[in-house]
């Protein structure tokens, strides 16, 4: 792989050990995947933030790094609400270790805006064809598919390395030829809302890491596309998909439909709603916001909860920046007794594990929560989630 004089000097350790390690990771990945060179990236989104997932070893590794990132960089969700972790009943020792992780990242110049939806943040925008180094699976899917930007599904260390170096290796979804659809998926009826999460849950299991081209009835909005991609990234490893006539590259390129076609029927979607049915009497928490809620989703939830009081624990997860910007909507939601949780989500927080059964409206959460949190999970659309939340 070709390196510039500056890059070679960095690899030789002339700019310090942290940068040497960082570019070594990028060069090694480039060699493995046949990259011809390193390319500049516009921003980085870094996973490996929750103390639940990285533990003391991860904290030690991050704390040993020195220097400053060269591009705008933010973090994935942490293991708790960083400002109000007590409302989640987080253990103080966990909270202390989590704060140390955040401080270690901040020392490197990384913003502690902890979210899986960085595309909602002011000043962190990406546009079609931008090269990025993002690592959270749903954010990668959204960037590649809905925005038309270009990023591989980076691991936490490689995204952090790209942030420090300002570049990543030129392979995978950075290349035109890797972005063409390899399998088509036809859905025989019109979907709405959480049906897209159910569809993603099904298709991810089938297609693995391939690039699907969807032929749909109707036109999904960005929230529905977010849900579709997040679920496919969780149940499979889909980092890029196209929707015929909807997503930017499918509109621009008018891809030929691949020979292999998978047909998804309405009965398969309906089965996902019944896939995991814990005893409804055990249902003691309802969570919405995986990926983090958009302003439009917060507004919808506020409207559904207006004039009600929740009878169960309810978490509405979003980024702190969005919550602060729409403080009136947040206040309206919390009047019902529901909790707006920032910086974290039900998947990466240990607070989830104390509950008996959870309802979600997210195919991503349906894929992750039972295994990562040990909590039986029921799937329903946002309207059903709120009905259960206020049921006496």
TrEMBL record:
Enzymatic reactions: (R)-5-phosphomevalonate = (2E)-3-methyl-5-phosphooxypent-2-enoate + H2O
Transmembrane annotation, as ranges: none
Top-level taxon in the UniProt lineage: Archaea
Pathway entry: Isoprenoid biosynthesis; isopentenyl diphosphate biosynthesis via mevalonate pathway
Chain segments annotated as coiled-coil in the UniProt record: none
GO biological process: isoprenoid biosynthetic process
Boundaries of every Phosphomevalonate dehydratase large subunit-like domain copy: 1-387
GO molecular function: lyase activity
InterPro entries: PMDh-L-like_dom (IPR007506)
Leading EC class: lyase
Keyword tags: Iron, Isoprene biosynthesis, Lyase
This enzyme's EC code(s): 4.2.1.182
Record note on quaternary structure: Heterodimer composed of a large subunit (PMDh-L) and a small subunit (PMDh-S).
Function, as annotated: Component of a hydro-lyase that catalyzes the dehydration of mevalonate 5-phosphate (MVA5P) to form trans-anhydromevalonate 5-phosphate (tAHMP). Involved in the archaeal mevalonate (MVA) pathway, which provides fundamental precursors for isoprenoid biosynthesis, such as isopentenyl diphosphate (IPP) and dimethylallyl diphosphate (DMAPP).
PANTHER family in the record: DUF521 DOMAIN PROTEIN (AFU_ORTHOLOGUE AFUA_6G00490)
Family to which this protein belongs: Belongs to the AcnX type II large subunit family.
The protein's name: Phosphomevalonate dehydratase large subunit
Phylogenetic placement of the source organism: Archaea, Methanobacteriati, Methanobacteriota, Stenosarchaea group, Methanomicrobia
């Amino acid at each position: 792989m070709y390196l510039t004089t500056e890059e070679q000097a960095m690899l030789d350790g002339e700019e310090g050990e942290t940068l040497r390690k960082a570019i070594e990771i990028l060069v090694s990945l480039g060699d493995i995947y046949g990259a011809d060179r390193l390319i500049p990236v516009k921003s980085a989104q870094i996973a490996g933030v929750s103390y639940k997932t990285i533990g003391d070893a991860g904290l030690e590794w991050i704390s040993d790094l020195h220097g400053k990132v060269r591009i705008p960089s933010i973090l994935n969700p942490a293991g708790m609400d960083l400002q109000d972790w007590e409302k989640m009943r987080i253990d103080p020792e966990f909270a202390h270790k989590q704060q140390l992780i955040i401080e270690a990242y901040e020392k490197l110049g990384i913003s502690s805006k902890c979210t899986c939806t960085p595309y909602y943040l002011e000043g962190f925008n990406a546009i079609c064809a931008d090269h990025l180094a993002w690592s959270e699976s749903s954010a990668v899917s959204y960037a590649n598919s809905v925005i038309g930007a270009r990023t591989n599904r980076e691991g936490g260390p490689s995204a952090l390395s790209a942030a420090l170096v300002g570049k990543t290796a030129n392979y995978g979804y950075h290349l035109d030829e890797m972005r063409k659809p390899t399998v088509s998926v036809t859905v025989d009826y019109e979907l709405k809302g959480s049906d897209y999460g159910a569809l993603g849950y099904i298709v991810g299991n089938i297609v693995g890491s391939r690039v699907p081209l969807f032929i749909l009835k109707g036109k999904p909005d960005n929230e529905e596309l977010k849900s579709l991609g997040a679920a496919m990234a969780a149940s499979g490893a889909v980092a890029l998909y196209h929707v015929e006539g909807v997503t930017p590259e499918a509109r621009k390129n008018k891809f030929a439909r691949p020979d292999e076609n998978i047909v998804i029927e309405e009965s398969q979607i309906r089965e996902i709603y019944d896939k995991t049915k814990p005893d409804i009497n055990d249902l003691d928490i309802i969570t919405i916001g995986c990926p983090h809620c958009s302003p439009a989703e917060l507004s919808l939830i506020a409207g559904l909860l207006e004039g009600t009081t929740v009878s169960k624990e309810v978490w509405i997860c979003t980024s702190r920046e969005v919550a602060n910007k729409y403080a009136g909507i947040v206040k309206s939601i919390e009047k019902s007794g529901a909790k707006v949780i920032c910086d974290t989500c039900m998947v990466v927080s240990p607070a989830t594990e104390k509950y008996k059964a959870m309802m979600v409206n997210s195919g991503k959460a349906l894929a992750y929560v039972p295994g990562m949190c040990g909590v039986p999970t029921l799937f329903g659309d946002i309207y059903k989630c709120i009905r259960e939340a206020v049921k006496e």
